[in-house]
Design a protein that fits this description.
single chain; binds magnesium ion; 13 helices; TIM Barrel; Enolase-like, domain 1; five-stranded parallel β-sheet; alpha/beta; 12 strands; four-stranded mixed β-sheet
């Protein structure tokens, strides 16, 4: 099976629950939908998350350049990765270069799954099983009354865990939000918090200790700048609540550096930044060797397959952001994501919706 062409389409679909974090507010999901067309007629699919719609064009341009390099090559993710890494060594395999590579990798693995008539999890040597998930929709930085209401709604959707965004101007307001949410969901619901890199190291230690004292928080995510591994190591040393980072690891190499620096207690790579399925499998080995719990960041449709073959599988981050453009959105049961038995990743575009949201 050889690559014929790679098509990328930009879409922006409104989010059911807009999300305000310490870095800004998201109201729509800007995605690049990738179709990797092969000479056997199989089309491998994946999507990339652009954060804002303005980021989609440059990623699509990179993807077009890569598609030209790869036309006629076998759909063999390891070989494709090696070729692209070599071609991009001097520019740097980082940021949007890496995103485009990851998108191609994910689509290539999907095509392989389809060719072998196996769900991705089976292709990787695992079996489909329910993967424990937390509801990561909503719970942004907002006034307490709607916050509490949303927390209850998110749990009622059938989840045993939710994530609250913190990083308000004052620590006291963060504590107020944490207490209000804890009270509204009760002690049996697992609660994570995420600062989205909003604090300095000193302030992260101060608020981290405040959270230690308050108790009942499963992890503190990205308290400070994500690539400051020395700073994160100081936070992890001084704060008892586990520190979670990883969504901004640029490839398994950077994850290895973070682990060597002791920058976190838990890791949560993002499949678009870690290098696609290929990069994820290497990251999973790093987490296993470090004896560290590994969770996913966004991309629940693909991450469920990957977590099922991750030795230290911890939590899947569930968001419904891509659901509007999918023919069959993920199914959930008792706070778990059910891995579809369809071949590959199981993602197919709802073409009518794609036309509606295309930009
Ligand atoms: Mg996060």
């Amino acid at each position: 099976m050889k690559i014929k062409a790679i098509r990328a389409r930009a879409v922006a679909a409104p989010m059911k629950r807009p999300l305000a974090t310490s870095t800004g507010t998201l109201t729509e999901t800007a995605l690049l939908l990738i179709d990797l067309q092969t000479d056997s007629g199989i089309v491998g699919r994946s999507y990339l998350f652009g954060i804002g719609r303005h980021n989609l064009k440059p990623i699509a341009a990179l993807m077009a350049a890569m598609a030209e390099m790869l036309a006629g090559d076998a759909v063999a993710p390891f070989e494709l990765e090696a070729k692209l890494r070599k071609r991009y060594t001097l520019l740097g395999v980082h940021n949007i270069v890496l995103f485009a590579m990851s998108g191609i990798d994910m689509a290539a693995w999907d095509a392989l799954g389809q060719a072998h008539k196996l769900p991705l999890v089976r292709l990787l040597g695992g079996t489909p099983r329910p993967v424990r998930a937390y509801n990561s929709n909503g719970l942004g930085i907002m006034p307490l009354r709607p916050l509490v209401k949303e927390a209850v709604e998110l749990v009622r959707e059938g989840f045993g865990a939710v994530k609250l965004r913190l990083g308000r101007a004052s620590a006291r307001d963060d504590l107020g939000a944490l207490r209000a949410v804890k009270k509204s969901i009760g002690p049996t619901i697992v609660l994570m918090v995420d600062f989205n890199q909003g604090l300095t190291v000193a302030e992260a230690i101060r608020r981290g200790r405040m959270i230690d004292e308050e108790g009942g928080v499963t992890w503190i995510e990205e308290p400070a700048r994500a690539d400051d591994f020395a700073g994160n190591a100081r936070i992890a040393r001084d704060v008892a609540t586990p520190i979670q980072i990883g969504e901004n690891f640029m490839g398994p190499e950077q994850m290895a550096q973070a682990l060597a620096a002791g920058a976190c207690d838990y890791a949560m790579p993002d499949v678009q930044r870690i290098g696609g399925v290929t990069g994820w499998m290497r990251a999973a080995a790093l987490a296993q060797a470090a004896g560290m719990e590994m969770s996913s960041h966004l991309f629940p449709e693909l991450s469920c397959h990957l977590l099922a073959v991750t030795p230290t599988c911890h939590w899947l981050e569930y968001v419904d952001w891509a659901a509007p453009i999918l023919r069959e959105p993920l199914r959930l049961k008792d706070g778990h994501v059910l891995i579809p038995e369809r071949p590959g990743s199981g993602m197919q575009w709802d073409e009518k919706a794609v036309r509606r949201f295309q930009i």
